[in-house]
Amino acid sequence: MNTRKFLAVTLLTLAFFPVLKWYWLRLGDGGGETFGLIALALALFFNRSQPHAASPRLAEISLLIYALSLFFLPPLLRSIPALGTIAFLSGMHRRAGQFGLLLLSLPVQASLDFFLGYPFRLITAEGSRLLLNSLHSLRLMAHPVERLGVQLSQQGQLVSVDPPCSGLQMLWATALLSALLSALFRLTYRRSIQLSIMALALCLLANILRASFLFFPESGLISVPGFLHQGVGLIFFALASLLLCNGARRLQTSIVPSLLPAPQNISHRLQILASGTLMITLLPARMASPLPQAELVSLNSYQGRTVEETALSPREKSFAENFPGELKIYAVAHDTLIIRRITRASRLLHPSYHCLKAEGFLITHSRIEKDAQEHPVLRYQATRQGEAFQVSESIRNLNGTRQWTDVSAWYWHALFHPQSGPWEAHTLMTPFSP
Question: 121 near 166, Cβ under 8 Å?
């Protein structure tokens, strides 16, 4: 590596340091983001085995966009032009599959869960309703099925399409397979887009079939072994993957020879842009306007039990400074109650199970149940090295007329109905012997 290239790589590494730091922190947040490293490794492998010519001019444009994005875009979105710069300099952009793998290396699974969790559950529930009612019209089911939000109802028996059944993990895995097949078969961008559309349709269909099958044991119509709850999803994913592989093979045309990389000189303009971007990252962060406070009044009791407010830890205080609302923690006998009051739709209202995963807890036995007031709550078990908690969490508006069991459903309601806030997120952690 000559001196000019070494200087350019050093400047770009320093300029991308905010994104690199954010990426590293997201790898350990418990959201399953480490799977993105698989996509990154595959992208680097194909770039080494199928090298292509770089596009320095496009890299300069992408770097300029990244520099401007530092002023107004969140880390996830500003990481896209940063990856684009790398793709243009390495030649990955010339193959759709390689570029797709590079994009999938971003830690997006928690964001997908937050923004798309509820819409995907809604699509799954409606698709299952249509499929199950088709069975009813064929006299294969005794009674029709109704959809109540993201729940399926038959003769008063409710079956919830809970967050694990949203199909987002299947969506990410299908997207990874689609990008991998595009790279293997060296598909053009147009054919890769066709394959991606096919992958999305197959993913939705597989998830609807999975939810429809699970309706029967969940409603008590049939009895199946417990391992089938996870196994049936793998079966439908495997069938969808086989169809996707066949589709990629049919989309393959004659293999186009690779564009061998020609020697590229790092331009002075790219070095100047990288230096300017580095200077921007050293500027002090702009002061944000203070967020409205939610005036969370301390509790004296909770569900008839005496509570005692506990002091926030330094980490919780740091989080509360940027939280668009207020956070309080109580001791309820041996239980721990966490209440977060929030004033607007915000990504900062994380599901409690994401925070517990980041602390090293294993989340199991997730289900939707009714509390003492007949309101739906999400319940699951969190275990870590001898520690075990039964966790209940829900979100509700202050007058108690609406309640949600997952953050994604609340977010879309709060986004389009801001006047219905503030809202409170309740998390109750009850210790038990594992």
Answer: yes
User: From CA 174, how far away is CA 182, in angstroms rounded?
Assistant: 12
Distance of alpha carbon 208 from alpha carbon 130, whole angstroms: 10
What is the distance between the alpha carbons of residues 163 and 154, in angstroms, rounded to a whole number? 21
Helical H segments across 138-188, by residue range: 168-184
Mean pLDDT value of segment 99-126: 84
The values of phi and psi at residue 8, to 5°, are: -65, -45
Rounded CA gap, 31 and 37, in Å? 13
CA distance 382 to 389: 5
- Rg value, the chain, Cα: 25
Bridge partners of 147, per DSSP, are 152
Maximum CA extent, the chain: 76
d(CA 385, CA 152): 37
Give the Cβ contact number of residue 154 at 10 Å: 19
Paired tokens of 285: 């962060």
User: Residues 163, 113: contact at Cβ < 8 Å?
Assistant: yes
Q: What is the pTM of this model?
A: 0.73
Q: What's the Cα-to-Cα distance from 260 to each of 90, 94, 168, 269, rounded to whole Å?
A: 11, 11, 37, 24
Beta-bridge mates of residue 159: 152
Q: Measured between alpha carbons, how far is 37 from 43 in angstroms, rounded to an integer?
A: 10
**pLDDT tens figures, 276-305:** 777 777 665 444 444 444 456 677 777 778
The least confident of 152-156, 222-226, 238-242, 243-247 is: 222-226
How many residues comprise the chain?
434
